[in-house]
């Protein structure tokens, strides 16, 4: 059998590990921050009808500029954001990859703030962009002064923020984004994959877009929209950013079926998002109940909770898996990360955790 080492692979990819969240069929899957609520039946019917229609012309390439989808997404975002300011791709992972392809690449660098979403550095590696790990403050916060100091020290071409941050759940102050933007002549990206789970009234980087052509805000339909399997991510930015991404995207990268499904789902945004409040209730339940069981959850503005105080996370992961419950060991010592599921899933997780102890 040939091993990877024997192939003439790029030197800078040798020894790297791929994204590897375990995919297992379990009773309670709370490991990849999905929305565990299924798509409502009537919305599924509307999506099926939209797909059926799109299938009739699937002999033709899809709308390469996905005009209708961009209109739908702009309407969903509101705040005066126009379709020209919106760009979409197969998950926000692909959006981030396109940003790195257009603004990063060999000889360029991206500053991120670990611990953060693991794909940020993996996509940097895949595009030959040097990943520079920046320093965070206490409790995983990033103050404006810290962001500015890290930018001054490393002079990156791109700065990645994640708000709220995965895997810690930490919110990000918009003053930090403003200060970082002023401190760099490069691109500033704010990954807002979990924005819909923040408390009402929480500021978003979308507010900062006017007058900041180098700022990009990425979002996804994978989390709040319960659409992870359909692979739809998007961004809002100056229209010139979409022009840059047109240079690197594959022609027709968003299939006609993806576009049709997403447009139908967004037309029912209120129904798709109906579960967000319920998920926030379950997240808050985790934040209240975990300390009662002797663990230390971090504050979270997202649909997951990172909790500490675990003597042996690997053992606890295995014990939970033995009970058919999948959580995530993100490699931060003495912690595990759990997604807020349905009320029943969250109860099962908490009861099991109480039973097995640390
Ligand atoms: N950003 C963050 C912070 C995430 O946690 C995730 C998914 N885990 C993504 C982006 C990617 O999501 P998708 O590609 O499904 O849009």
TrEMBL record:
Q: Which residues span the membrane?
A: none
A Pfam family annotated for this UniProt entry: Aminotran_1_2
Catalytic function, reaction form: L-histidinol phosphate + 2-oxoglutarate = 3-(imidazol-4-yl)-2-oxopropyl phosphate + L-glutamate
The cofactor required is: pyridoxal 5'-phosphate
Residues with the modification N6-(pyridoxal phosphate)lysine, per the entry, are 223
Which residues belong to any copy of the Aminotransferase class I/classII large domain?
28-352
The enzyme's E.C. designation: 2.6.1.9
Would the keyword Cytoplasm be found if you checked this record's keyword annotation?
Answer: no
Any one GO MF term held by the record is: histidinol-phosphate transaminase activity
Identify the CDD domains for this entry. Answer: AAT_like
Q: Which UniProt keywords apply?
A: Amino-acid biosynthesis, Aminotransferase, Histidine biosynthesis, Pyridoxal phosphate, Transferase
Biochemical pathway: Amino-acid biosynthesis; L-histidine biosynthesis; L-histidine from 5-phospho-alpha-D-ribose 1-diphosphate: step 7/9
Its EC top class is transferase
Q: What interactions and quaternary structure are annotated?
A: Homodimer.
Instruction: Check the record and name the PANTHER family matching this protein.
Output: HISTIDINOL-PHOSPHATE AMINOTRANSFERASE (PTHR42885:SF2), HISTIDINOL-PHOSPHATE AMINOTRANSFERASE-RELATED (PTHR42885)
Q: Which family does it belong to?
A: Belongs to the class-II pyridoxal-phosphate-dependent aminotransferase family. Histidinol-phosphate aminotransferase subfamily.
* The protein's name in its UniProt record: Histidinol-phosphate aminotransferase
Top-down, what is the taxonomic lineage of the species of origin? Bacteria, Pseudomonadati, Pseudomonadota, Gammaproteobacteria, Lysobacterales
Name the gene behind this protein. hisC
């Amino acid at each position: 059998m040939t091993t990877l080492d024997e192939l003439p692979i790029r030197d800078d990819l040798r020894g790297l590990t791929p994204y590897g969240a375990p995919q297992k069929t379990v009773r309670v899957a709370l490991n990849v921050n999905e929305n565990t609520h299924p798509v409502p039946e009537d919305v599924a019917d509307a999506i099926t009808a939209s797909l059926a229609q799109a299938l009739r012309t699937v002999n033709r390439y899809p709308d390469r500029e996905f005009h209708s989808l961009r209109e739908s997404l702009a309407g969903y975002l509101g705040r005066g954001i126009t379709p020209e300011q919106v760009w979409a791709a197969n998950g926000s992972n692909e959006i981030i990859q396109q940003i790195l392809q257009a603004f990063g690449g060999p000889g360029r660098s991206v500053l991120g703030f670990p611990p953060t979403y693991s794909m940020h550095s993996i996509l940097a590696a895949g595009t030959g962009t040097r990943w520079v790990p920046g320093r965070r403050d206490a409790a995983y916060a990033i103050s404006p002064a810290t962001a500015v100091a890290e930018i001054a020290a490393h002079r990156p071409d791109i700065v990645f923020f994640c708000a709220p941050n995965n895997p810690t759940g930490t919110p990000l102050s918009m003053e930090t984004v403003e200060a970082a933007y002023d401190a760099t002549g490069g691109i500033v990206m704010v990954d807002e994959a979990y924005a819909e789970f923040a408390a009402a009234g929480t500021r978003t980087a979308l507010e900062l877009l006017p007058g900041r052509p180098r700022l990009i805000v990425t979002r996804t339909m994978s989390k709040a929209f319960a659409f992870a399997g359909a692979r739809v991510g998007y961004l809002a930015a100056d229209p010139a950013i979409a022009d840059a991404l047109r240079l690197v995207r594959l022609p027709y990268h968003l299939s006609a079926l993806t576009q049709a499904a997403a447009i139908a789902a967004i037309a029912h945004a209120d129904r798709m998002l109906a579960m967000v409040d319920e998920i926030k209730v379950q997240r808050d339940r985790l934040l209240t109940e975990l300390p009662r069981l002797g663990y230390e959850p971090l504050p979270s503005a997202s649909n997951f909770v990172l909790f500490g105080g675990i003597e042996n996370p690997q053992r606890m992961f295995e014990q939970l898996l033995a009970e058919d419950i999948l959580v995530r060991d993100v490699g931060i010592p003495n912690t595990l990360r759990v997604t807020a599921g349905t009320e029943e899933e969250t109860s099962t997780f908490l009861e099991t955790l109480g039973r097995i102890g640390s």
